[in-house]
Specification:
With 554 residues, the protein is of the alpha/beta class.
């Protein structure tokens, strides 16, 4: 179905405080918009001279900034989670999680799946065979799959193990682990990394989700993002289902944001069967005005909470891994270099998931190899960039590599407390070295990793980058306060720098002639407010291509 869209508007937008994010004219008071594009930025008189007789709209609020970009999210999955799945916050205890499952089961038919999350990584050590039996009881014997706060691990019921064909002697898949009782050898219901795909495949077959559900999930998520001031994003793991949903949303005229897709270029543990030549060949079939499937995705390691991130120093000792375990990468440096070189030949910029400092070093080494043979190339991203050895920080700028930051995953939080139980304290005390990366000349860009975090709003993340404190106020203390950055630096990470990172800087990220009229109208003058209040910023209106897509207009 294709819906004809009204012509893009011609008008003048006026506000005394328009922050353009450009060096030559950082502040303006009027923007001339013709057919959705900016044709003048300056005074009201200058704007009216450009478009004589055009309608002038007075914008509300305290200031105007460029539409924000989210460099890392999974918005279709997030829409699914909010519309169709059970939610538990990561601060819940195991008893509270089980109570939520029991409540969800009350409205389910026998045999129906219960799907949801996101349980906190701090529960990992409690999820043994007895916990699985309690999950079975709470669910009334139904199949249950619950995702953790990293989305890299699952806790499932006995019925879900059976549906997935997981028995006590089922071998661990490559880059994954079926956690087993150390005495009996039976599966506990805790699945790590690639082992999750066994249950995800069983769920997909059982649910037989119709495509229109994903389209509605995508539409819901875009509205949520627009309400936060977001008008552009990089979808970070673009499967066939995501390709179809985004293209359908575009065809229906409901895609009110720029979207860059990240096609898996190697087998992804969380998206089985979604890599290869067939998927790459589908890219042009789904390309549209607002959707550009021009990026790739590689998982080079897992997450530190389950000791699947690749670390330079050993994890803290435990009964399973002993005293000298460092995790590992899914590819060697030569293998990754070959994949990156092949991707560059296709014009694909790659987002490389690295949560450990060893995987970050390996990614930089592989990019260095490619540069040594081919010279300057495409700008790749290291996703999360949380643990970075100090010696590697200058290499981001030297190799033109983006630090893709997900602040909600590192500022003081439940997940950080869980990491403290697996990783030596000195490493946690220098997590997310944003100040150092910026000072070294690296391009840093902000993302949410929604629905790994339950709220996609960039404003609490900006507060966390500036204060290095928990924006919710639940946890005390600052994490690496010496790595705090300024308000404008944080805003740049979510506007022009995120646009540069995603390849969208020719379209958006700043308010200047030739770009799309993408704006966020705020209730707060960001540079005057207490930094501890930045997370409370409200977006009164969001404009995309000169149309108001969130909030009321006069």
């Amino acid at each position: 179905m294709h819906i004809d869209i009204a012509p893009l508007p011609t008008l003048i937008l006026y506000h005394p405080r328009i922050f353009t994010m450009t060096a030559d004219r950082p502040w303006a008071e009027a923007i001339s918009v013709q057919e959705g594009r900016i044709v003048a930025v300056g005074t009201l008189q200058e704007a009216q001279a450009t478009l004589p007789g055009a309608r002038v709209i007075d914008l509300p609020g305290a200031m105007v900034v460029p539409g924000l970009l989210d460099v890392h999210n999974h918005f279709v999955w997030a829409g699914r989670a909010e519309l169709y799945e059970m939610f538990v916050p990561p601060v819940f205890s195991l008893d509270q999680v089980l109570a939520a499952v029991r409540e969800a089961a009350a409205s389910k038919a026998p045999g129906d799946w219960i799907v949801g999350g996101i349980w906190g990584s701090s529960l990992m050590e409690q999820l043994d065979g007895k916990a699985r039996e309690r999950l079975d009881e709470a669910a009334g014997g139904r199949p249950v799959m619950l995702r953790d706060d990293s989305h890299h691990n699952r806790f499932v019921s006995t019925a879900a193990l059976v549906a997935a064909g997981i028995q006590d002697d089922t071998p661990d898949p490559t880059n994954g682990r079926i956690v087993r009782d150390p005495v009996t050898g039976s599966a506990t219901g805790l699945l790590l990394e690639a082992a999750c795909s066994l249950v995800e495949i069983a769920l997909a077959k059982a649910m037989d989700a119709t495509p229109h559900l994903d389209v509605e999930a995508a539409a819901h998520a875009i509205k949520r993002l627009n309400a936060c001031g977001v008008t552009g994003m990089q979808e970070a793991l673009t499967t066939r289902a995501v390709l179809r949903a985004v293209k359908a949303l575009e065809d229906q005229g409901r895609l009110s944001a720029w979207v860059v897709g990240s096609i898996p270029v190697t087998e992804a543990p969380l998206a089985p069967g979604e890599a290869g030549e067939e998927l790459m060949a589908m890219r042009e079939q789904f390309r549209s005005r607002h959707f550009m499937p021009d990026a790739g995705k590689i998982f080079l390691d897992g997450v530190p909470t389950s000791r699947t991130a690749a670390m330079l120093e050993p994890y803290l000792p435990d009964a399973v891994h002993g005293c000298c375990f460092r995790g590992g990468t899914t590819l060697t440096v030569p293998q990754l270099a070959k994949v990156l070189a092949d991707s560059e030949r296709r014009g694909i910029r790659v987002k490389i998931h690295c949560t450990g400092d060893a995987s970050t070093r390996a990614a930089l080494d592989a990019i260095d190899v490619v540069r040594s043979f081919n010279g300057p190339g495409l700008r790749h991203q290291i996703a999360h960039a949380s643990f970075v050895d100090p010696a590697e920080i200058p290499r981001f700028a030297e190799l033109d590599v983006v630090a893709d930051l997900s602040p909600p995953l590192w500022f003081p939080s439940v997940i950080i407390e869980a990491i403290r139980s697996t990783v030596p304290q000195p490493l946690v005390d220098r997590i997310a070295p944003i100040r150092s990366l910026i000072d070294a000349g690296a391009l840093v860009a902000g993302g949410s990793d929604w629905p790994v975090v339950p709220d996609p709003s960039p404003w609490p993340s900006i507060q966390g980058m500036v204060t290095r404190r928990d924006p919710t106020g639940r946890l005390d203390g600052a994490l690496c306060p010496e790595e705090a950055i300024g308000v404008e630096e944080a805003l740049r990470a979510y506007t022009i720098q995120a646009a540069q990172a995603t390849g969208l800087a020719h379209l958006t990220g700043s308010i200047e002639v030739g770009k799309s009229a993408d704006l966020a109208i705020l209730d707060t003058l960001l540079f005057d407010v207490d930094p501890g209040q930045l997370g409370a910023t409200q977006v009164l209106q969001t404009w995309f291509e000169g149309r108001c897509v969130h909030g009321a207009t006069a």
